[in-house]
UniProtKB/TrEMBL annotation:
<keyword id="KW-0503">Monooxygenase</keyword>
<dbReference type="Pfam" id="PF13450">
    <property type="entry name" value="NAD_binding_8"/>
</dbReference>
<dbReference type="GO" id="GO:0004497">
    <property type="term" value="F:monooxygenase activity"/>
</dbReference>
<keyword id="KW-0472">Membrane</keyword>
<keyword id="KW-0560">Oxidoreductase</keyword>
<keyword id="KW-1133">Transmembrane helix</keyword>
<comment type="similarity">
    <text>Belongs to the FAD-binding monooxygenase family.</text>
</comment>
<feature type="transmembrane region" description="Helical">
    <location>
        <begin position="15"/>
        <end position="31"/>
    </location>
</feature>
<keyword id="KW-0812">Transmembrane</keyword>
<dbReference type="InterPro" id="IPR036188">
    <property type="entry name" value="FAD/NAD-bd_sf"/>
</dbReference>
<protein>
    <submittedName>
        <fullName>NAD(P)-binding Rossmann-like domain protein</fullName>
    </submittedName>
</protein>
<dbReference type="InterPro" id="IPR051820">
    <property type="entry name" value="FAD-binding_MO"/>
</dbReference>
Length: 180
């Protein structure tokens, strides 16, 4: 996906996840588990996962929530420390991504600059600045399924996905004309 010129292309994925932080990793895991035939990609602006935990490096940075409730339900926190340091959390996230095969879906150095839905055309246009490139990549998505995921990254994703498994995801009216 490394391009040097402006262009528009269709994305070879049904679902677009923006960011490889905790929410993005969780969305990817749940897509793989509850919609195993769906294709997806994670666009991450940085060169590492974990956002807050890999970005900030000031002394003493740690979780302010106990890790047993902060951790993913599908991968319990097994460390003895109740409040994980940034490095411990980064290690935990890396383990999670690798153990679940999520790493192969992450496109690093891909910073989303905008996402706009055209209600007239029924498509999303997502502009992405790729690292070390002077131009933007524009993706056109005609599938609605990613909209549901990106707009509802919550703890109830498995229930939402399971309920919609047999039917096409409908675009709700509150997303019409939405710009992100």
């Amino acid at each position: 996906m490394n391009r040097k010129t402006d262009f528009t292309q269709s994305l070879d994925a049904e679902v677009l996840i923006i960011g490889a932080g905790i929410a993005g990793i969780s969305a990817a895991y749940h897509l793989k588990k509850y919609r195993p035939n769906s294709t997806f990609i994670i666009l991450e602006g940085r060169d590492d996962i974990g956002r807050t935990w890999s970005l900030f490096r000031y002394p003493g940075i740690r979780s302010d929530s106990d890790m047993q409730s902060f951790a993913f339900g599908f991968k319990p926190w097994t460390q003895k420390k109740t409040f994980g340091s940034a490095q411990m959390i980064c290690d935990y996230l890396h383990e999670t991504v690798i153990e679940n095969g999520i790493d192969q879906y992450i496109q690093f150095g891909s910073y989303v600059t905008s996402a706009e839905f055209s209600s007239n055309e029924g498509i999303w246009t997502v502009k992405v600045k790729q690292k070390d490139q002077k131009s933007l990549v524009t993706y056109v998505l005609a599938s609605y399924s990613w909209v549901q995921v990106i707009m509802t990254i919550t703890m109830d994703i498995p229930l939402t996905l399971r309920a919609q498994k047999s039917s096409k995801v409908k675009l709700s009216t509150h997303n019409i004309g939405r710009k992100i």
